[in-house]
Amino acid sequence: MTPDKKRAREAAQVVLEEFGIKRIPVPVERIIKSKNIMLEYAPLDEELSGMAYTQDGISIIGINALHHPNRQRFSAAHELGHHVLHAAEINETVHVSKGLRALKRDPVSSQGSDPLEIDANTFASELLMPEKFLLEEIGPDGLDMEDETSVEKLAKRFRVSVAAMKFRLGGLI
Ligand SMILES: [Zn+2]
């Protein structure tokens, strides 16, 4: 399986349309619950962002409760991405996510990151930081990526971590 960023972005855009999302921050928790997916918070190992699986027909998302709330939002969107994009892969199999940590290339594998993780990160990025709203927030004058305060402000508006916003602005997710 290879990552399909275009498919992941389009799937997130469909969800935004479906829920008539007109403003930020995107209510990811409400979206998940409306889709009849159980959302649970539990303390997990620091390097794990969350997990997704379907068991006996029940879709479940687990989030690392020890992470910052903004990071938890990205994790929730990432796990929703697995349910939307990878239903077959996570059926009766617990998928454990490293979230944005998956962006760091694995030095052992020439393949780099897991394609499932790339797709889920792309989905989460588009769901929480849709291009349209991002362009509106940045405005016609653009944004200085070197200006930490501006990037922090932007991240706060979207209720995502500064790291996630930087990856988004840098075109990495
Ligand atoms: Zn994942």
UniProtKB/TrEMBL annotation:
Gene3D superfamilies with a match to the protein in the record: 1.10.10.2910
Lineage, uppermost ranks: Bacteria, Pseudomonadati, Pseudomonadota, Alphaproteobacteria, Rhodobacterales
A matching Pfam family: Peptidase_M78
Limits of the IrrE N-terminal-like domain: 34-169
Protein name from the UniProt record: ImmA/IrrE family metallo-endopeptidase
UniProt superkingdom: Bacteria
Species per Swiss-Prot/TrEMBL record: Ruegeria spongiae
InterPro entries: IrrE_HExxH, Rad_response_metalloprotease
